[in-house]
Design a protein that fits this description.
single chain, four-stranded mixed β-sheet, 13 helices, binds flavin-adenine dinucleotide
Length: 397
């Protein structure tokens, strides 16, 4: 890893100024307030403005293909994050667009990609089902061929962003008699088709997600991605990207692990509680002068730094686990008023630790739970073999 500082040349400094001015104009206090209220993590006006400025296309494409250079990509990502640009729906859209480009029929690619770049088309992930999400291959949503169409029936849980998207990247089962990895077929399903019903769900941290029902939804064959029963091949790339199983760049111009956007909430909470602990209370004493406060705050700060520096798939686990572990300590240090929600009047630390406390469980669930990630590390990184959940063998007497 290269820890050297990056010296920006005059053009890149100009780009930084341009991006800051652009984001200040579009990602306003009102956008952030509205986003907290809806829990959408998406703002259509901002998204369309980013598309119109050409930034979506430049972010999606490689430098060789006309996209951002490595330095500009890093500037763009960090600046977007710094101002809390609503971002979730672009993340899913960009991932699905890669699968469409690789596995879609030419007319589908033509229908979708240009509008992905303008921001008019957004796409979400239809993997998880009400009966389980960790093993996406145990899919019960059925797709049955009928002439040159497919008929889809089933339901998907936690389809985040569906109400702001035009298509869903849907896992279906096209052969219930086959082994599970040979039974899957992927579709890009337009969300305005008859038979699709989207119902909102709010999570404990205020995020909005959805349950989506599919009842006799008729989809043209052009929306099929890849081969029939070859869905696992189509899914591999997006799943690897979501799991952070992509190689780290040696130039240091990217996050060391996925989810560092989310970790910003943890940094904000540590900073806010540290500031509060250093301020004298009504009796003139500073909380930090109490040894137990200093110890727990110091431990939280050290764990934050360790989590932020932990690379790849290990970082995914370290970050989400640290959020869960230090959230209660931070609230405790901040005192009883820390239970007031973020930005409410009188909240001890601006509500940052309370928000971290509510957000932490989710950060260890979506995109794969912490337990599943730990199994992946054991199995694929440490080579410990597949876990066995069978009861221990008993000795024959
Ligand atoms: C806010 C939020 C947004 C989400 N957005 C999306 C989305 O956009 N699209 C989408 O398709 N899904 C989405 N999900 C779903 C998410 O990917 C799943 O919740 C996750 O994969 C876990 O699946 P599950 O909830 O069905 O739990 P289950 O798979 O039913 O697991 C239940 C429990 O068993 C444990 N467990 C399961 N299998 C194993 C194993 N092999 N080893 C050890 N422990 C195991 C789990 O850790 C968990 O504690 C979202 C979830 C949340 C909370």
């Amino acid at each position: 890893m290269d820890f050297a500082r990056v010296e920006l040349n005059a053009e890149d400094r100009g780009f930084l100024a341009e991006v800051r001015a652009f984001l200040a104009q579009h990602v306003t206090d009102e956008v952030r307030r509205r986003d907290r209220e809806t829990g959408d993590n998406f703002d259509e006006g901002v998204h369309l403005a980013i598309g119109a400025a050409g930034y979506l296309e430049k972010e999606w494409k490689s430098a060789a293909d006309g996209g951002f250079t490595r330095v500009r990509r890093r500037i763009w990502e960090l600046e977007k994050r710094r101002v809390h640009t609503p971002w979730v729906t672009w993340g899913t859209t960009a991932m699905v667009a890669r699968a469409v480009a690789a596995f879609g029929k030419p007319e589908l690619v033509e229908e979708v990609l240009p509008k992905v770049f303008t921001g008019e088309v957004r796409m979400c992930l239809g993997y998880t089902e009400p009966e389980g999400g960790s093993d996406v291959a145990t899919c019960k949503t059925r797709a049955v061929r009928d002439g040159d169409q497919w008929v889809i029936n089933g339901s998907k849980m936690f389809t985040t962003g569906a109400h702001n998207c035009q298509y869903v990247f849907l896992i279906t089962n096209t052969d219930p008699t086959a082994r599970k990895h040979k039974s899957l077929t992927m579709f890009l399903v337009p969300l305005d088709l008859p038979g699709i019903e989207i119902q909102g769900i709010r999570t404990v941290d205020g995020d909005r997600t959805n349950i989506v029902y599919y009842s006799d939804v008729r989809v043209d064959d052009k929306y099929l991605l890849g081969e029939v029963n070859g869905g696992w091949t189509v899914l591999r790339g997006p799943l690897d990207a979501e799991h952070g199983a992509v190689a780290a760049a040696p130039d240091g111009l990217q996050d060391v692990a996925i989810m560092q956007h989310q970790t910003g909430f943890m940094s904000a909470a540590v900073d806010a509680v540290a500031a509060k602990a250093a301020r004298p209370g009504p009796d003139g004493a500073r909380p930090i002068d109490d040894g137990s406060v200093a110890y727990r705050l110091g431990r939280s700060a050290a764990r934050l730094e360790a989590a932020l520096s932990t690379p790849s798939i290990f970082g995914r686990v370290a970050q989400a686990q640290t959020m869960r572990d230090i959230g209660p300590d931070l609230m405790d240090i901040a005192g009883p008023a820390s239970v007031l929600p973020i930005e409410s009047e009188g909240a001890a630390d601006g509500g940052t630790s309370e928000y971290l406390y509510r957000f932490a469980p989710l950060a260890g669930i979506y995109g794969g739970t912490l337990e599943v990630f730990r199994n992946m590390i054991a199995q694929h990184v440490l080579g410990l073999g597949k876990p066995s959940y069978a009861p221990p063998a008993t000795k024959a007497s």
